[in-house]
Write a structure and sequence with these properties.
Layout (H helix, E strand, L loop, with lengths): L1 H9 L3 H10 L9 E3 L7 H5 L5 H23 L13 H8 L9 H8 L2 E6 L6 E6 L48 E6 L7 E8 L2 H6 L7 E4 L6 E3 L16 E6 L12 H12 L7 E4 L12 E4 L2 H7 L4 E11 L3 E10 L7 H12 L6 E5 L2 E6 L2 H6 L9 E6 L5 H7 L11 H15 L3 H10 L10 H8 L5 H8 L15 H13 L15 E4 L3 E3 L2 E7 L3 E8 L15 E10 L17 E6 L5 E8 L7 E9 L6 E10 L20 E6 L7 E2 H5 L11 E6 L2 E8 L3 H7 L5 H28 L4 E3 L7 E3 L1 H10 L2 H5 L4 H8 L1
Parallel strand pairs: 2-9, 13-15, 18-24, 25-26, 25-28
Antiparallel strand pairs: 1-6, 2-3, 3-8, 4-5, 4-8, 5-6, 5-7, 9-10, 11-12, 11-21, 12-15, 13-14, 16-19, 17-18, 19-22, 20-23, 21-22, 23-24, 27-28, 29-30
Helix pairs in contact: 20-21
């Protein structure tokens, strides 16, 4: 048995495993194989879990973390299912790893990470992965109800671990090459039992078909009606910094890693693992070796989550802020937003490539996690279509911590595979709630600043095109297309700006006034409520109109990152107590049945000396009801507490809505001419790139979409295409004519390509072979067309023929 185990463990690929089984006469010996989960029908359970190999691998990592936490509890003499055991992952960390905040320190983190490792072996293009954990381990006789069981829910009453469904460990088998081989070995941490091992595989389909079976199944290797066992003291299995003595070893042969993660796992795979593990409870190592990659200088790397990677990347992050939302409908959400700088590398293109490579490798812009593990996501389409902030679609990452959501909400939101969101009414409602929160957060101002970088000056560069367009005959069908696409109002030369534009201008000037610099402290020393409608006793009273919202602000002196920093973070606790109806008498305050039942609460991060909480009454409150809100700001020198009263009042009277005005005459998108240095009243490349828009010699046109309307078309006068087009024209008149032809051709083709694609509701996708297809925004698609040879092709057409075709 020991010889067999060592041969299997040292096998680098599934082909090597097959050779071992053939040499031992085990491949076709049906007496040596038993159905996985003791049920041949569980084939579908295994195959229909994670849709991607990385989240399937993450499940193995999470199982290893669970095993390490469980070992610590048992070592303390506590039954993992008893009331004395930790009630959450965070409680287990605080109890057994009190210095876990020091994992930001390299040596400390690496020492802890040696308890959990992913080790690569085999050829470069046929990599096998071994997952080791220094956890509780399992006795050989317990394998059938732990490693080899399915759907038993054997962790459902253990509250400090992530695993619940008894399914996640099986998901990775579907990505183990063509033969689906996975080695499972484990030894109890206290050395009370020998090491047990078995091999899982998919029953060869040819053998199943020969036996007249409609489908195959998964199975595991047995000897003497059970898994094999071996007496082993310690083994050198290629771990970093130690030998194997106890715990578990899982080897995934010929694992089908995605393109972009098949080289050095300590570099490329790490990026994806960090994405799916935003904040893992424990760090772990990825271990490659110099035999596979002789030139690799860092074969061993620690993985400790995307959160810490983001916090360490000061060069790339422009802004970070967080807020919490507590509602009766969902429970508590903690939302952290990261905005990347528009230009952190030499060019916008290089900046985008870096951000994409390091943080969006799997196209996840909004991450939903439980206990640090990402369980679903939105792509950047949420940024463009729901938030309507297209300039941020390549520069925005949002983390939504769902750990404290109501249980029934989590069940309706996440799949049992824990790699994607369900399509349900709950998930749609959460999407709307998240859109509302982010659209009214600090993100709104950042999007506004980016947009301001693209503002058009007073010079009307598009007058030539307006003159042409004004004379175009337009039938009803063409008008309908344009109305779906263009901004419908065009300010005439000399016309006064609209009221909103004037208000924005006044507000911008007001915001530019000098303010007293804020001097932040690491820990708060003050916490006081501001404002209020009047006082009731010792407390300030705030009136909340039914159906409306109210914001209460607190003054403090703590730094903005107080709630989010990795080392020694603070928190703001909000307790809501019902006082009673002022019309019907009071009584002692009573707690609601659960947080959020009386008020929907929204708490922001500290922002230059102010913490805001937003309020909205739930259906349980009636007009006249008064509630107490106890706000407690944590501090190492003693918590700071403020109490306010909130009274529900009659709804505010709404002003009579003005009658809708008739649609203004059809307008066209603004033409904005760009050049490298901004000469001759053009917009410079620097101004464009400040908004995160790529503009260089390769770019011909950038269509800017605002609120789903084509607002402006930016045309590059220093593009390589125009330079080549003008090079054959010698006289100044010929050069001017070539430039005008370039402008009109690119403008009108951009305009009608965008309009037609949008009105026909086409969806444009892009992706390499073997990768998930990514939906592309229409503006990006049109811009990319001109970057290729399409612009040169168009410039060979006669402009007159083009205009005849349009009319």
């Amino acid at each position: 048995m020991r010889k067999l185990f060592e041969r299997l463990l040292s096998s680098g690929t599934e082909t090597d495993v097959q050779a071992v089984l053939d040499s031992e006469g085990l491949s076709q010996n049906s007496d040596r194989w038993r159905p996985y989960g003791d049920n041949e029908a569980f084939y579908g359970v295994v195959e229909n879990q994670q849709a991607h190999p990385v989240p399937a691998l993450v499940e193995k990592v999470m199982n290893g973390i669970d095993a390490i936490l469980e070992k610590r509890v048992v070592e303390g003499g506590i039954d993992v299912r008893s009331n004395a055991a930790p009630k959450s992952v965070k409680e287990a960390l605080d109890r057994y790893f009190p210095n876990h905040s020091n994992w930001d320190l390299g040596d400390f983190r690496r020492q802890q990470a040696r308890d959990l490792q992913i080790v690569a072996s085999g050829p470069r293009r046929d990599t096998s992965l071994m997952i080791y954990d220094n956890g509780i381990g399992q006795a050989p006789e317990d394998f059938p109800k732990t490693f080899l069981s399915l759907l038993r829910g054997n962790k459902n009453d253990v509250h400090f671990v992530q695993g619940k469904y008894n399914m996640g460990g099986a998901g990775a088998i579907a990505f183990c090459g063509d033969l689906r081989y996975q080695l499972v070995a484990s030894k109890r941490f206290d050395g009370s039992r020998p090491l047990g091992f078995t091999l899982l595989r998919r029953h060869p389909p040819k053998l199943a078909a020969a036996a007249g079976r409609k489908n195959t199944w998964y199975e595991y290797l047995v000897f003497d009606d059970g898994v094999a066992s071996v007496d082993i003291g310690e083994l050198d299995v290629g771990l970093e910094g130690r030998k194997f003595r106890s715990g578990s070893l899982l080897k995934l042969y010929s694992y089908r890693l995605p393109e972009g993660a098949r080289s050095i796992i300590s570099r490329d795979l790490n990026v994806s693992l960090n994405e799916y593990l935003f904040e893992p409870a424990l760090p772990f190592l990825t271990v490659d070796n110099n035999e596979r990659f002789p030139d690799n200088r860092a074969p061993v790397t620690a993985v400790f989550g995307l959160k810490r990677r983001l916090e360490g990347d000061k060069e790339t992050i422009e802004a970070k802020f967080s807020e919490s939302s507590t509602t009766a409908e969902f429970g508590e959400l903690l939302i952290t937003t990261y905005v990347f700088k528009a230009l952190s590398r030499d060019t916008v293109k290089e900046t985008k490539q870096y951000i994409q490579r390091e943080y969006f490798k799997n196209h996840m812009a909004v991450l939903f996690s439980l206990n640090g593990q990402v369980q679903g996501h939105y792509t950047s389409e949420f940024v463009t279509r729901s938030l309507k902030m297209p300039l941020l679609k390549d520069y925005l990452l949002v983390h939504v911590d769902c750990t404290n959501l109501h249980l029934e909400v989590r069940n309706e939101l996440f799949m049992a595979s824990r790699d994607r969101l369900k399509e349900s009414e709950t998930s749609e409602a959460l999407r709307r709630h998240l859109r509302e929160l982010l659209s009214t957060s600090d993100l709104k101002e950042i999007a506004k600043r980016r947009k301001a970088s693209l503002t058009v000056g007073n010079d009307d560069a598009g007058q030539m095109l307006r003159d042409i367009t004004r004379n175009l005959p337009m039938n009803d069908a063409l008008t309908r297309i344009l109305q779906q696409t263009f901004q419908l109002s065009v300010r005439k030369p000399g016309e006064a700006p609209a009221k909103k534009e004037r208000d924005d201008s006044v507000r911008s000037k007001r915001e530019q006034r000098e303010t007293t610099p804020f001097d932040p402290k690491r820990y708060p020393s003050t916490f006081q409520v501001k404002g209020g409608d009047n006082r009731q006793g010792d407390f300030r009273l705030f009136k909340l109109p039914i159906g409306g919202t109210r914001t209460i602000s607190f003054a403090t002196d703590v730094e903005n990152e107080y709630f989010d920093r990795s080392e020694d973070p603070g928190n703001l606790r909000l307790a809501v107590l019902k006082q009673g109806n002022s019309a019907g008498g009071g009584g002692p305050p009573t707690l609601p049945s659960r947080q959020g039942d009386l008020l929907d609460l929204r708490r922001s991060n500290p922002s230059d000396g102010t913490i805001k909480i937003g309020l909205k009454a739930s259906s349980q409150m009636k007009v006249g009801d008064t509630v107490e809100i106890h706000a407690t700001l944590s501090s190492p020198t003693g918590d700071l507490v403020e109490t306010v009263l909130v009274q529900l009042t009659d709804p505010e009277r709404k002003a009579e809505e003005p009658r809708p005005e008739p649609s203004p005459p059809l307008g066209i998108p603004d033409l904005v001419l760009c050049s490298r240095d901004g000469a001759n009243n053009t917009k410079s490349w620097g101004e464009i790139t400040a908004a995160g828009v790529e503009m260089d010699f390769n770019v011909v046109v950038y269509p800017f979409v605002d609120e789903d309307k084509l607002s402006r078309i930016y045309i590059n006068l220093d593009s390589g295409v125009l330079h080549d087009f003008k090079s054959g024209n010698r006289s100044s008149d010929a050069v001017e004519l070539a430039e005008r032809r370039y402008i009109s051709t690119v403008y009108f083709h951009t305009l009608f390509l965008f309009a037609t694609t949008k009105s026909r509701k086409y969806a444009v996708t892009r992706g390499d072979t073997g990768e998930a297809m990514e939906e592309v925004e229409i503006a990006d698609y049109v811009s990319d067309l001109f970057t290729s040879s399409y612009a040169q092709f168009l410039l060979n057409f006669d402009t007159g023929e083009l205009m005849d075709a349009i009319s």
